[in-house]
Structure formats: C-alpha cells, structure tokens
What does this fold into?
Amino acid sequence: MTLQEEVDLLRNIPLFSKIETSKLKLIAFTSERKLFSAGTVICREGEDGEAAFVIVKGHADVTVKTPRGDIKVNDCHPNDIIGEIAVLCDVPRTATVTARTDVTALVISRELFLRLIQEFPSIGLELMRELGMKLVQTTRRLRDGGGETGNEQG
It folds into this structure.
C-alpha cells in the first residue's frame, strides 16, 4: 500500500478525519500495519498497553473475564479503535480482543498516540465520544443480559 493510500485510509477514520495531510503522513509512516488471523488474540486483558489499534479491515470480539466465565461485551468493526484505555490511563488492558475474521490493524505506539492527542484536541474530543459510546453499549449489553459466556480464543 502506498503512503497516499494509507493517508486516505486514515482520513476515513473519524478519529483522524480532521488532521492535516502532513500529520496523517506522519501517522501512516510511524505506525505499523499488522495482520491478525481469525482466532488470534490482538490484545489480552491484564497485559500492559504499549499501543492502540485501529481496525482497518475485519471484525473482532471484545471479552472480559467474570467469575462466571468470559463475557462478550462488544464487537469491533473497521475504523474502530481498541486498546486506547490502557494507553491513555497507563493501566493494564481492560479486556481481551480476539479477531473473529482476519483483521488488519494499524498499530499506533503509546508515544505517538499521546503526542497526537496533545497536538490535535479534535482527536481527544473524538476519543471521548468514542469511549462514551463504548461505555453506553457495554452497559446496555450487560444490563440486558446480552453478554455471551464462553472461553476466550487464542
């Protein structure tokens, strides 16, 4: 994929849509594109969060451990960001994310991610919106008993 194709891809992600082209080129150049095969754990609950991931292609499941087993609390789709809580709050990962299909993700290091938030307040605002929506979805799913129980994959 060319640098311009990477920039175009980033521009379609709401989190990065308002960033100028030169900065999108920097993100594209300094981030890593990684493929996760279906069934592979992208990040595991309890691990250190050294990077955030933007799903470029594919779908993943988010699960959390409970005394009654693992519960699926969310689905990840293209343009979703995952792992941002551990990066932002410097805490262990709060959930396990497993590729449901083959997933292509953009891996953004903690350092770059935090620098982007400092330089572009619009990213921080969009990130707050996204975190708020995730909280609403997770709360609704747990309240409605919609969490699926099962073993995590990988």
